[in-house]
Amino acid sequence: MARESKRRSNGRRSPWAAAALIGIGLLITGGVYAGASAAMAATAEPSASSTLTVEDGKLLFQANCATCHGLSLEGTPNGPSLFGVGELSVEFQLATGRMPLQMQGPQAPQKAPQFTEDQIEAIAAYVQSTSPGPTYPDPEVLDGEGDIARGAELFRINCAMCHNVAAAGGALTEGKYAPALHTTSPLHMYAAMVTGPQNMPVFSDMNLSLEDKRDIISALIFLQQEESAGGFTLGSLGPVSEGLFIWIFGIGALIAITVWITAKSN
User: Fold this and answer.
1) Is 68 annotated as a binding residue?
2) Was 188 annotated as part of a binding site?
3) What positions does the domain Cytochrome c occupy (predicted)?
4) 249, exposed or middle or buried, with CB in 10 Å at 0-12, 13-18, 19+?
5) Into which CATH architecture does domain 54-130 fall?
6) 42 membership: H or E segment, kind and range
7) Which CATH architecture has domain 139-233?
8) 178: enclosing H helix or E strand
9) Does residue 63 have a known ligand-binding role?
10) Which three-class secondary structure state does DSSP give residue 76?
């Protein structure tokens, strides 16, 4: 009887063995399924149903924009009419996060966009279908291959009084400001010139031709990509930051040398 009970105890399985086998099986099954799903997703062509339609844009507009701009784009006391603004203006305002407006102020600040790119394009397409306006330019206008020197001259004449000659932005009246353009995309540079958001004037083709706009965009792209030839930019804010630098470090160095000479003589 003793031998029989010992043999049974030696052949008994651990109570965790079944759980371990189930866990291993689930891991293997999940890994195979995940790999197969990824392979199918990589080889499958994008479905047309994944692209939002104008009707989807209408629903998004009614849910997020109509409170201020009206169900039919007619405007309300809280927001202007969108008749004729076009899809270019809508894309600019939504993609830069200026709209939807979080709170009233001197001007709408740029922030992270609330909508995805597909949603923005759908809302813009709905506005364009309801009340057409300025639309996207030819890719050539945004390619950065224009005349950089001519574009820089045009920028100094038409834009530098607000945006600074180095496109660093600047203060305006009543708490408003012209934003820096160091990270602005070529499309949004063009959109700002054509649609005139907030304090920006509208530059029609009578003011600046398409070639002029292309040259200005090319000059700004050059500023974004090239390092300053003059060394430290000090924020590109002109004599204010330069004078402060000279006052602190230049005069500070002279005072330090004077104190050192005086201490030496004593």
Assistant:
1) yes
2) no
3) 52-131, 146-265
4) exposed
5) Orthogonal Bundle (1.10)
6) helix 17-43
7) Orthogonal Bundle (1.10)
8) strand 177-178
9) no
10) strand
Angle between helices 86-95 and 186-195 (to 10 degrees): 130
181 is in an annotated binding site: no
Averaged pLDDT of the chain? 84
To the question of pTM greater than 0.90 for the whole model, the response is no
Question: How far is the CA of 263 from the CAs of 73, 146, 235, in angstroms?
Answer: 75, 61, 37
Cα angle for residues 217, 239, 249 (degrees, 5° grid): 125
As beta bridge partners, residue 79 has: 76
**Residue spans of the chain under pLDDT 50:** 1, 7-8, 44-49
The residue with tokens 């063995």 is: 17
104-161 residue pLDDT tens: 888 889 999 999 999 999 999 999 999 999 999 999 999 999 999 999 999 999 999 9
Phi and psi of 196, rounded to 5°?
Answer: 60, 60
262 sits in which H/E element: helix 252-265
Concatenated DSSP letters of 124-164: HHHHHHHS----PPPGGGGSS-S-HHHHHHHHHHHTHHHH-
Q: What is the CA radius of gyration of the chain?
A: 31
Contact (Cβ atoms closer than 8 angstroms) between residue 81 and residue 74: yes
Can you read off the two tokens belonging to residue 168?
């660093």
162 annotated as a binding-site residue: yes
